[in-house]
């Protein structure tokens, strides 16, 4: 029995507005720029657009530091632009979800300005303030996601405030019911404008262990690990449930939580309350750490396919009865997927298509990040001055202060920096890839003459057309959406293969995950090669008695019955 929902059958397209399309030639993408491109998005087969934050913000973290939830960032436009954006999206029979960033605000939000002004004002308790300990050291040894302590001392009132991210992103105090009420009201205000849901930024960080213990720390480390005390905290379920009851349950919307270290059990638990959907799905980070060193996100390791298989199996089986998956390989915080999981040189096209095949044949709702559909690559600027991201710039500064060599640190940044995904969308081979006619806020990737939307649309063999085809195939084959997931060849180190089964429908997916050519015996009878091949990224098939010869990144999807 499947529980059909529109958001389970949707394909989502994520827009990072700053880098999408500049309509007024000031070098920054904007709302009108998005409106200009809605037909392009619709044509790809998209149902839902997820818009990264567009609210008023001093941009310490590109809009994830909000100074007013109900105003629009000047760079992007105004509320009227947003109203027409929502209208134009709905006109095209698509939906739109916004980013909900309520773990923290900007330090320029009026709540925080008031909060920091004295010890006893009515907003003091909107944020998390603590006295220093042992000679006025920070209240805990936690390390911020962007480097340094999670606590900043404020001279005015001589206390520390908590910020899990930048010091310009103070954490809200969710223990305070007034804060929660204001947030629920703000959510209702946006839903009444007609948006169709939310992507909830770091939502499993909102409840903190109120005893604020120090985190574990090895002697060679400067900071301790606070994650056990602010991830999946004691009141998290209560808050999400309350948000549902006080506002979300009144609307037919979709919600996707961004949840670090959440786990399948939580994903299940949080998917429902009293028969109503709570967090419809979550972005877990397990695939985002398969190629990273345990201690540092900046150390890139090789791809281990068996690890990837294990993660999909765990989540696909874990959420097959209850809950739902969100499928993504990249976003605005991650390197470009073809550079990371594929090969952005001689097999860029083949590997981008292989990754698309995997995403579109997995159980769960697929999320495409802007540019992925034309196989955009990492940028690898050679000069730190070209980077814009606070996390990257901090990393550079902190590591150089430790005495590390510039070249070494730059190598890490080139592979891992979030700016890899934030260079402007490549529309055509004109100046600045058609993104803007003035100087873009961040440089365009120099490969834009080779990789751009216009060229991709004109080439029937492009990554773009492959995405378009496979999206259509997914929509026409409900078994690819709701079918059960059965892994095959689980011990194979370079071929990823699985079955999707739904009532009488049966699909077989075979992906050569690497560039080595190889032969593999498929443990399922494929009667004739042309029989039911739905899609492949090569022109022909090399099949002989169930032995498949797979070329670099070759991917095939069969409909067996
Ligand atoms: O990201 C949260 C997060 O934990 C990471 O993905 C983060 O970007 C990075 O990897 C830290 O090392 C969300 C947003 O997606 C991100 O853009 C924001 O910077 C962050 O929250 C704060 O709002
Ligand atoms: Ca602009």
Cα(first) to Cα(last) distance is 19 Å
DSSP helical segment count: 16
Helical percent range?
25-40%
| Quaternary structure annotation | single chain
* Integer average pLDDT: 97
Instruction: Bin the strand percentage.
Output: 15-25%
Structural category is alpha/beta
- Characterize the overall form: globular
Instruction: Walk across the major sheet and give the strand order.
Output: 13-10-9-5-2-1-15-14
**Extended strand count:** 23
Structural Rg: 24 Å
In this entry the ligands are:
1-O-alpha-D-glucopyranosyl-D-fructose, calcium ion
Parts with pLDDT < 50 across at least 5 consecutive residues: none
Sheet with the most strands, sense and barrel status: 8 strands, parallel
Short summary of the structure?
With 561 residues, this protein is α/β, with parallel strands linked by helices. Helices cover 26% and strands 17% of the residues.
List keywords for this structure.
17% strand; eight-stranded parallel beta sheet; 26% helix; alpha/beta; binds 1-O-alpha-D-glucopyranosyl-D-fructose; 561 residues; binds calcium ion; single chain; 23 strands
């Amino acid at each position: 029995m499947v529980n059909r929902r529109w958001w389970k059958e949707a394909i989502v397209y994520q827009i990072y507005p700053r880098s999408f399309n500049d309509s007024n030639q000031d070098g920054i993408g904007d709302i009108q720029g998005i409106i200009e491109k809605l037909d392009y998005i619709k044509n790809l087969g998209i149902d839902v657009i997820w818009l990264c934050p567009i609210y008023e913000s001093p941009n310490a973290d590109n809009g994830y530091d909000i100074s007013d939830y109900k105003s629009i960032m000047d760079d992007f436009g105004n509320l009227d632009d947003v109203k027409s954006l929502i209208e134009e999206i709905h006109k095209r029979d698509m939906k739109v979800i916004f980013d909900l960033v309520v773990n923290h605000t900007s330090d320029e939000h009026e709540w925080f300005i008031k909060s920091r002004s004295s010890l006893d004002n009515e907003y003091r308790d909107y944020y998390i303030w603590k006295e220093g300990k042992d000679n006025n050291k920070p209240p805990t040894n936690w390390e911020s996601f962007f480097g340094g302590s999670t606590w900043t001392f404020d001279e005015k009132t001589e206390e520390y405030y908590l910020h899990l991210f930048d010091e310009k992103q103070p954490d809200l105090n969710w223990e305070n019911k007034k804060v929660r009420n204001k947030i629920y009201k703000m959510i209702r205000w946006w839903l009444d404008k007609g948006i169709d849901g939310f992507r909830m930024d770091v939502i499993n960080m909102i409840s903190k262990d109120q005893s604020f213990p120090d985190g574990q720390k090895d002697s060679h480390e400067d900071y301790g690990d606070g994650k056990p005390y602010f991830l999946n905290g004691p009141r998290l379920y209560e808050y999400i449930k309350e948000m549902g009851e006080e506002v979300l349950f009144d609307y037919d919307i979709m919600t996707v939580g961004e949840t670090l270290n959440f786990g399948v059990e939580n994903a299940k638990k949080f998917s429902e309350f009293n028969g109503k959907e709570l967090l419809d799905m979550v972005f877990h980070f397990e695939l985002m750490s398969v190629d990273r060193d345990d201690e540092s996100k900046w150390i890139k390791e090789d791809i281990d396919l068996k690890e990837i298989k294990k993660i999909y199996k765990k989540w696909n089986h874990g959420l097959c009865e209850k809950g739902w998956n969100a499928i993504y390989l990249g976003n605005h915080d991650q390197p470009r997927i073809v550079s990371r999981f594929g090969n952005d040189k001689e097999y860029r096209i083949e590997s981008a298509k292989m990754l698309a095949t995997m995403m579109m044949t997995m159980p769960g709702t697929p999320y495409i990040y802007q540019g992925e559909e034309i196989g955009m690559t990492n940028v690898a600027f050679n000069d730190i001055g070209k980077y814009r991201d606070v996390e990257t710039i901090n990393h550079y500064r902190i590591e150089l202060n430790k005495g590390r060599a510039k070249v070494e640190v730059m190598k890490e940044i080139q592979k891992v920096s979030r700016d890899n995904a934030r260079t402007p969308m490549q529309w055509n081979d004109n100046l600045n890839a058609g993104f803007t006619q003035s100087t873009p806020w961040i440089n365009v990737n120099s490969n834009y003459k080779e990789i751009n939307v216009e060229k991709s649309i004109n080439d029937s063999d492009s990554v773009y057309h492959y995405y378009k085809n496979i999206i259509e195939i997914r929509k026409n084959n409900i078994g690819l959406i709701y079918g059960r997931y059965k892994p095959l060849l689980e011990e194979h180190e370079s071929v990823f293969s699985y079955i999707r089964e739904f009532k009488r429908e049966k699909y077989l997916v075979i992906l050569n995950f690497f560039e080595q050519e190889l032969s593999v015996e498929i443990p399922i009878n494929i009667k004739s090669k042309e029989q039911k091949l739905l899609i492949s990224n090569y022109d022909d098939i090399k099949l002989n008695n169930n032995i498949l010869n797979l070329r670099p990144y070759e991917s095939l999807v069969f409909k067996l019955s």
